[in-house]
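Standup notes
- DV: blocked on the single-chain target, sequence here:
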Amino acid sequence: MYMKQFRTFLSLLLALTVLCVSGCDISTIENAFGLGMNSPTEKSENTEKTSVEIEYFDSDAGTNDQSSDLKSDETDSVSVPKEDETVVEVKDDELIYDDVNKLYSVNCTDPDRITISFAGDVCLTEGCSVLNYIKRHDNNMANSFDEKLLSRMVGSDIFMLNNEFPYSTGGSPLEGKMYTFRAAPESAAFLKDIGTDIVSLANNHCYDYGPVALNDTFDVLRDISMQYVGAGENITEAVKPAYFKCNQKTIAFIAATQIEGYANPETKEATETSPGVFRCLDTTLIKQAIEEADSKSDFVICFIHWGKEKNDLVMSWQQSEATDMVSAGADLIIGAHSHCLQGIDYIDGVPVFYSLGNYLFNSNTQDTCLVTATLDCSASDTVDIESLQFVPCIQSGGQTVEAPESEWSRIIRYEQGISYYASIDENGYVTYSSTNRNTQHGMNTSPMREKEEDKSGE
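- DV (later): unblocked, structure below
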């Protein structure tokens, strides 16, 4: 939290110095300090005053992805690019922001625990219901969440989400792609309103406006000190994990996508000389990346973009890929892309959340969740999962709120029925189950599917 405050202070001091030297009047200086950069104190005030009432709007047209079946991948053999060998010495309680080595630090609330929260797909594309709602409510993304949910996000030591679009005014929409997203660069500041610390760019929309817009996105995120993984100006950067120093422990974050599921996708993979995403349809490269991260950290988190849209049935190739990642050293796997919830599983003791669904994506009313992992870092040489909580939420009308009591229990029951070797108690806490709890019988039971079938008359 102090790192965020320190960076914000430096940014504001620099802005004030430049304005004063240039002879600006007081109104210009005031405008410079009104660009939506909230300090941790301001976040707390937002948390206390925020109250969200769910409004119901018609579904947004054109916010669903194209579905694509898994096809054979013709990717040549690959290896992890050699990382920068620079060694950064870290002193106790020293705050670090090192974009070259992707090494950062946070001061945790509890010296023996690290809390990390995860959310699924977020979209701030121009003209969408989510952005329209934000603009109508003081240009503050915090107002898109209720008090309880916002406090969970802001109160986590690290909060991560899937950033499903580029930030740019440049580039051109990919020719022939049905739905293309792009957000104005100034929209990136909204991420700070809700306590975001790191985003995944490994998805099938961050390249919607080509390499120009993707490169702009990197610059925009770096300008606001927002960490990102899963894409880069070249393959070395796209593959490189982000490392967070917390309570004298190191947590590694890796993001990758296997959408689209064929060899020459619309969303380009980064190369040695061109920008793009980190693809993991062939798991060779991500296994090497995990092994590398495992050797440099105490805990490895993989945020993966996979699955089939509007389908809560986990595909066999998702399970196969998860098994490969676990064997390479992943300690926690978080998934996104299906735009609906998918189940939870344990593979060789490692929790796998196959999809967190849409978190704040469009105006549709649908179930979603926030997942919070509490890590025990009290031992000198290990980091273990102390608890995992699945927090039921509801997205509607460009807002997301923590599910009320009646809806909470319904969503818990639903999530339990689509999960596997995992048990979810009434408070959403997830633990290993020695028996398979799944009741789908090989069928897609997603409410999103039912809604679409009702609309089409099928």
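- Follow-up: The first helix runs from residue 2 to 21.
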